Q: What sequence folds into this?
């Protein structure tokens, strides 16, 4: 259990998938006191040892949010309308510095612009990567970068199988289904890495990059895995230009898939980083087949 003397970790996004995972793992570890941050503390009173208001768009709220905190976990939500990730993260880093925070953990993503030589435009990746320098140069005694994977949960949420023109249920996406390029994972397990980083600052707190990777797959492998468990999902590759014009945000997703196909999600050889993340987490991440059997119900 957490004691009053335990160091306090303030978690941004505590009501969401990444921050929620961080809160649960930190509490389970029992080593830290946890302060959940949300724009609506009254709706989430039981989330952690403390629940405090923080709005990244209102920097004046961040002083009280980070006051007395030993560590801060920061995630920004690109997909929320009106979000300026650079502005939000800059405000959070500044407020954390002023509050005397000792260990700052930022949930980043690879720099697709740099990896692809400027050919691909994926702001929800590259915009986060550009924040790394701000975190690094802020001069915290310790800082860590965690990298969230393609959530397994996407396949039941934003990217759930759809009814196709031929009557089948499945995916129509602008990606070669034979190319293995997607670093994936159960996002609820990101918290183990975050908690592990705060618990091991000497090993994780010198700017280490810690990706969560439960599996590395092609779309064919994803579908074969599901279909072996009783599903009958189909896959159709659609032309990139046609997909990009389909709905608001489709162009960003099309470019993201191009990146997976050309360079892989992480965009670099990451075996050592993954091994360090798993060691600090104290657990091997769940492979897709195991997760799907437990969470992806056969209709
Ligand atoms: N889906 C994927 O495969 C994937 C992979 C890698 C990275 N990502 C990234 O993950 C991020 C989203 O994280 P998530 O999945 O944890 O999101 P989520 O489950 O949708 O939750 C969003 C969280 O952000 C908080 N939030 C939003 N705007 C805020 C603001 N102005 N001030 C303070 N808190 C704010 C919300 O808190 P309250 O509403 O309680 O205030 C909520 O806790 C995105 O930036 C996305 O690019 C996604």
A:
């Amino acid at each position: 259990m957490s004691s009053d003397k335990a160091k306090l970790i303030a978690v941004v996004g505590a009501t969401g998938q990444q921050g929620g995972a961080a809160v649960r793992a930190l509490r389970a570890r029992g080593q830290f006191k946890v302060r959940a941050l949300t724009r609506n503390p009254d709706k989430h009173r039981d989330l952690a040892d403390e629940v405090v208001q923080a709005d990244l768009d209102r920097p004046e709220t961040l002083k009280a949010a980070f006051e007395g905190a030993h560590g801060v976990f920061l995630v920004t939500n690109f997909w929320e309308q009106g979000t300026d990730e650079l502005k939000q993260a800059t405000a959070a880093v500044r407020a954390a510095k002023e509050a005397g925070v000792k260990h700052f953990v930022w949930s980043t993503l690879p720099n697709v612009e740099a990896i692809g030589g400027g050919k691909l435009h994926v702001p929800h990746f590259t915009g986060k990567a550009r924040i790394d320098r701000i975190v690094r140069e802020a001069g915290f005694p310790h800082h860590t970068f965690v990298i969230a994977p393609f959530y397994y949960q996407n396949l039941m949420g934003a990217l759930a199988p759809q009814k196709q023109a031929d009557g089948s249920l499945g995916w129509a996406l602008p990606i070669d289904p034979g190319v293995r390029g997607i670093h994936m994972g159960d996002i609820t397990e990101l918290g183990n890495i975050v908690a592990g980083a705060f618990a091991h600052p000497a090993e994780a707190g010198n700017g280490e990059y810690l990706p969560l990777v439960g599996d590395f797959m092609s779309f064919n492998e994803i579908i074969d895995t599901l279909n072996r468990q009783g599903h009958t999902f189909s896959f159709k590759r659609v032309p990139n230009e046609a997909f990009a014009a389909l709905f608001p945000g489709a162009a960003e997703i099309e470019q993201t898939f191009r990146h997976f196909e050309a360079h892989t999600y992480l965009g670099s050889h990451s075996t050592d980083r993954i091994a360090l993340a798993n060691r600090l987490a104290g657990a091997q991440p769940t492979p897709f087949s195991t997760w799907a059997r437990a969470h992806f119900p056969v209709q």
Summary: The longest helix spans residues 85-98. The mean pLDDT is 97.
